[in-house]
Specification:
The chain is mainly alpha-helical. It has helices spanning 47-53, 55-72, 77-97, 108-115, 127-139, 141-144, 176-185, 206-209, 218-235, 244-254, 256-259, 267-278, 288-305, 307-328, 341-361, 364-401; strands at residues 4-6, 21-24, 32-33, 35-36, 43-44. Strand 4 and strand 5 (43-44) form a beta hairpin.
Length: 409
């Protein structure tokens, strides 16, 4: 049966793996739309249509977000030092690679400020420097200069994680004040670079939290949550504390279970939703499908490590949400645009705590089986993507050999 064509502006519930209902692109009116403009909600099918539907729309969207984000930054000394190192490297690479003297990068005045250790804000830049900075942000050039973060679940210590029978961490900090002071003095010992600790209080039995049996779909929901957790830590280079509320909002935008109150019923459905969000215009610059497949490897690794690693990751996720809630209470203008954010964070925190209690009660054999299922779905996704690429290549080769103009006898 032919696909049903929908021409309304209502969002489609279809996915690349289940294209039952589609919407026609509002730009070319020829192809099915797969994406939505984050500013004007126009539906489009490709990058070409995205650029042509409204250049003013896309440019103003990027400019407003960059300026707004910079205006809200309250950097500490450590953040200033990191930015200083990045700007120094950025300028040195521009000096080596640039062939155009008028477009070489930072002015001499700005360079002297940076080298002397003075703080340089966005407003201190010249119009040309602002343009170059925005271009570097949009193209991802600045992110390439940040040292890559090694996820804690890939470290050897993650294989030896263990918790008590009640689910708490085996080693409790005796003097929290001394711990916090030492971490400030030694950036290398910062908690963001270490394995997140487990909970400090014992878990209650799941039977005390709900009167009925836990849903059999919790394994599916766990995959969705773990993927969103790995996604958030990856794009924040492991340091979600630098922007707790921003990290929480990214988490809610990826997770169907935590952000959209979704209830995926199969691993395929959960994986498909996560990959669709990863390949959306908002995050596609991170690497698209290849980045998403790497995140599935992260999920498989966490599941393979067993209950202690899963509890620690969920506990870290709970702290992320709680920090986002505290930041929201500050009442910054940017943070209070949507009144439902607070309720979403509260609901997400309760869901995470419940599933953390449930994970603690499950046998380790369950996680090895779940890891195998996720690995299978990843393979299916890769096969599907490969088949789509081969179809496109075949269509291109056919179009090259087709006679475009035929002589009329």
């Amino acid at each position: 049966m032919a696909d049903t064509i929908i021409t309304s502006e209502n969002p489609s519930l279809s996915s690349p793996l289940n294209p039952s209902n589609r919407i026609i692109c509002r730009v070319c009116q020829k192809q099915f739309s797969q994406y939505t403009c984050p500013r004007c909600n126009s539906r489009y099918c490709s990058l070409q249509c995205y650029k042509s539907h409204s250049l003013r729309c896309t440019e103003s969207f990027m400019r407003e977000n960059v300026v707004e984000e910079l205006g809200q930054m309250q950097p500490d000394d450590e953040t200033k030092h990191k930015m200083l190192d990045i700007l120094k490297r950025f300028h040195s690479e521009e000096d080596m690679d640039s062939m155009d003297e008028d477009d070489s990068g930072l002015s001499e005045e700005t360079i002297q400020k940076i080298l002397s250790g003075c703080q340089v804000s966005f407003d201190d830049l010249s119009p040309n420097e602002k343009r170059l900075f925005q271009r570097a942000v949009a193209s991802g050039e600045l992110s390439k200069m940040i040292e890559p973060w090694v996820p804690w679940w890939l470290k050897p210590a993650a294989r030896t994680l263990s918790l008590s029978q009640e689910g708490t961490q085996l080693v409790q900090p005796l003097i929290k004040q001394e711990t916090s002071v030492s971490s400030e003095d030694d950036p290398e010992s910062n908690q963001a670079n270490e394995i997140p600790p487990g909970p400090e209080t014992p878990f209650p039995p799941v039977s005390k939290l709900i009167a009925t049996e836990p849903s059999p779909l919790l394994t599916v929901h766990l995959v969705d949550i773990l993927y969103s957790y790995c996604f958030t830590l990856r794009i924040y280079n492991g340091d979600w504390r630098s922007d707790a509320l921003g990290s929480a909002m990214v988490l809610l935008s990826i997770s169907s279970v935590l952000g959209q109150a979704g209830l995926p019923e199969t691993i395929l459905e959960a994986v498909s939703h996560c990959l669709e969000q990863t390949c959306s215009p908002a995050y596609r610059h991170l690497g698209g499908l290849q980045f998403g497949l790497g995140l599935l490897d992260d999920v498989i690794t966490l599941l393979s490590l067993g209950s202690p690693a899963l509890v620690c990751s969920l506990c870290d996720l709970q702290r992320l949400i709680q920090a986002g809630e505290r930041e929201l209470k500050l009442g910054k203008p940017r943070k209070s645009k949507r009144p439902d954010i607070r309720s979403k964070l509260k609901l997400a925190e309760r869901k995470i705590y419940f599933i953390m209690c449930w994970v603690h009660e499950q046998p380790d054999e369950a996680w090895s089986s779940l890891a195998a299922i996720v690995k299978t779905e990843k393979g299916s996704t890769m096969d599907f993507a490969a088949s789509q690429r081969s179809v496109k290549m075949e269509d291109k080769s056919k179009s090259r050999g087709k006679i475009l103009i035929e002589e009329v006898q």
